[in-house]
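[AMINO ACID CHAIN]
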Amino acid sequence: MLNGFFSRHRGRFPFAARLSLMLLTTIPLVAWGGVHEQVRQYTEDYVRDFVAAGPRDQVEVEAASIDTRLQLTECPGLLTADIRGAGEVRRNTHVFVQCHEEPGWSLFVPVRVRILKPVVTAAVPIARNTLLQPGQLQISYQDEVLLRGDVFDDIQALLGTRSKRDLRPGRPVLASQLCVVCKGDRVTIVAETGGLSIRTDGIAEEDGSFNESIRIRNSRSGRQIQGRISEAGVVRVGL
C-alpha cells in the first residue's frame, strides 16, 4: 500500500528519562584500542539508542574522529554521555562525554545520523505507458532527508500499475508517476456493506492512483458511479 510521506519525527526525551538512560549507559573505559577511538565508539553506541527508526530502516551513526592531541586519560570508572539541548537526535548531533575519574576530562563529540528508508525504485529504464512487472522494480535504501513525494515500500502493491512517464533506474517510484487504474481499463467493481461483498465488471472513465476516487461505468447496467481505487484493477464502492 501507499505509505505517502515518511515521518521525520524524532522522539523527545524529558530530562528524567535522559538522566536514567545516561546512568544506564555509564561504562568503564578500559585500555583496548586507544582511548580516543573508544570514546568515539562509545558515543556512536549511545546515540544509536536514541534514534527513532522503523523496523525495516537502516541507521547510520558516525561520530567524528577525536583529535589525538587531546590529553584523554583512561576512564576505568564512570564515563557518561548526554545529548545537549532538548535531548533530540538530529542529523547533526553533539554529545557531551565526560570522564568522572580523577583527573577527569570532558568534550563534545559531533555525530552524524542518517536514516535510510526502504523504497521501491526502478531497476531498469521504464518507458512511459509500461505495465509494471516484478523484474522492473527493486527495493533500495534511500536517505529519508532526500525523499520527496509519495513513495512506496512494497513492490507487490505496484504490480499491474502503469507508468505515466519515463522512470529512471535507482530513482524512487512516486504515486504521481503511476496510473493505478487508467481511463478505458477494465476493472473489478467491489460493492461492500457490512459482511456482504458483491463483485462485477466495469470500465474506468478516468485515470486514478491509490485511494483516489474516480468515475467508473458498470459493464452490465451501463450506470456511471464513483469508486475508490484500492489496488491495481480494483475499485470499491459503498452500497
